[in-house]
Structure formats: C-alpha cells, structure tokens
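Incident review: delayed structure delivery

Summary: a single-chain prediction request sat in the queue longer than the usual turnaround. Root cause was a stuck worker, restarted by the on-call engineer. No data loss occurred. The affected request and its eventual output are reproduced below so the record is complete for anyone auditing the incident later.

Affected input:
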Amino acid sequence: MRLRPHHLLCLFAYRGQGYNRAFIQRMDALQQAYLEGEAATIETAFDDVCAACPYNGGDRCANPEGAPPERIDRAIAGALGLAEGAAITATEVRARLAALAPEAKDALCEGCSWKEAGSCKEKWG
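Output delivered after worker restart:
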C-alpha cells in the first residue's frame, strides 16, 4: 500500500467513520492490512487513502477544513525520519512515535480537523 506520512497515523486513529460509504470501505480495508503487518510505502502525493476521498481534487486536496496535508506530511516525515519510497510497518511507526517527547507528538498533526475532533491522541499518544 502507498501512504502519505500523515495517513500512517490516521490509520491508527480511524474508527469506521468518514466522508462516505466508499471512503469508509477503503479505510476499513487499508487499516486492517496495515495493522496486520502489511508494509506501507511512503508517498508524498496522493496515496491509497486519497484515492477514495471525495476531496481528491486530482492534483491537490480540496478539503476546505484544517491545515494543508502537505504541511502535516512534512512534520510527520521529519519527526519520524521518513523518506519517500521507504517501506515501513505499523509496528515500526509505533516504535518511532514512542520515542518522541509528548509535546513533539502533540504537535505532529497540528491543524488537522480529525485531530481537533479528538480521534488521534487516544490511539497513538
């Protein structure tokens, strides 16, 4: 699977909710594969989550809410030492998250509307 850096964390926090039925079905399948050990290849553009998102604008994210996903991707990639094209498992992502200071984890997804709803912190830090 191909995932943007921020989607590595979204799949931990995902709770079966989303924009529409197609998106939810796609997220269900991706989350199951990821948590069962399938490695994700880091992608800095649209990935397998974006493919089912109704805000997929072709060459940009058209979601009017929250921070630009590119900014969040850069923050997460930097904090977790991720490079485009690298493969990483959920187990390795959790280990890298655990090594971060609490304030660093808290700042990772600053501005994301899903984080603001409280979805993330309880699942990964």
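Verification: The chain has seven helices and three strands.
Action items: add queue-age alerting; document worker restart procedure.
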